[in-house]
Amino acid sequence: MRRAAGHRGAAAIAAGLLALLPLASPAQETDPLAPEARLSIGQQIAVENGDLIGITPLDVILRTGTRVQTLQFSLSAPLRLNDPEEDGTIALGDPQARLLFRRGVRNSALEAELGYRENDLDDEILFDNISNEFVTLDNGRVAQTDARLTYVFGRESKLGGEFGLSWLRRDYSGTTDPDLDDRDTVDGNVVFYLEPTPLIRARILAEASRTRGETTDSRSDRYGAGASLQIDKLTNLDVELARTAIRREQNDRIEETEGPSLRLGLTRSRPLGDWSLSFSSDPGTSGRREDFNIGRTLDLRRYTLSGQIGVTRFQGNYDPIFQIAYRQQVSRLSELQASLRRAAATDEDGDEALNTDITASYSRQISDVSSIAANIRLRDSTVQSGDRQDARTVSFAVDYNRALPNDFSLVAGASIIRSKDSNDTRDDEERVYLGINRSFSFLP
């Protein structure tokens, strides 16, 4: 499989870890409001699946901000030399770009975001928070373009609201799975809040989603009402009742369902953390899904720990679900993070699965000029409805960085990915890289 740069494997795995715990290193903390204009370029040599490839990473970061608003832009466009999977001698690797604008005042906030990325489909799961994606073994590639706009008002008033609109386009190339067709998805939501008393915050909500693909079209609508209630100084209750309608059309076959959606949440504060109970029940074209969880969080001086355990019911079957996240500042120079989660997922075709995700990372500042980081991740999809295959992916990466004079840095690392599905299809990847990078800062 084609790779963007030697350090992309670890970066992708770290992106997955962000889903549960923020990955941070003491040496990398920066002021989010400080203006920044930085260009990084380098030259690396990588051995990928036995092939010797030259890589020229090119990264741009621009940021400006005040206490009221921020504007950020990032671009990664690596060049690859003598890649046997490309037609030409020089080719563009896995490009990524993102533009983010935020503006907030006391009572309202506006946020807009535009992004693009392209990568091998086998690596796609490493970019996703645990959501509605299944592990997929396919030799193709995917290009994703997304846009998002959110406006919130009345955050500190008795009357407020939120408007959200998002667009996502996924273009596949070189794939063999018929379920992977190009598609556009548009989502919108409106929520109005009313606070009749200091102890009650009621809401009216409406959500809509439209997906149009080459072989699949789907639409879902959800509207209802809810409220957050403060029962006493330590206990809060959240209740939401809505009506959900789903319609999917695939290969001239239509599936429709409509029914109530119920969500309940109860939290109670304790000195070291919170206890929580939650229940949800939602209709689907393959059957109703019901989840029940009990959770606990601990926030101590040296570490934080949060966990949930429960059960999900689908088509008359009960399966355990759980989530555990652990973070520890081992010392002033090192940090350890680990997470485990099993949750139900529904893809855009209405297929159901149980996703299990295990992640762990360790970072250490070896000296004032050098650091090392290691990441491991396992992702497993057990399909409960539809014709998709059960699949599993295991990834491991280690990266080393050493600062050199005149803004140069030495980078090195290795990564391994092992994938397998229920048809005994396998996809194995290995990479080792070594290189020199240099950063140019255009602001003092």
TrEMBL record:
Residues 1-27 form the signal peptide. It comes from the Bacteria. Keywords: Signal. This is Beta-barrel porin 2.
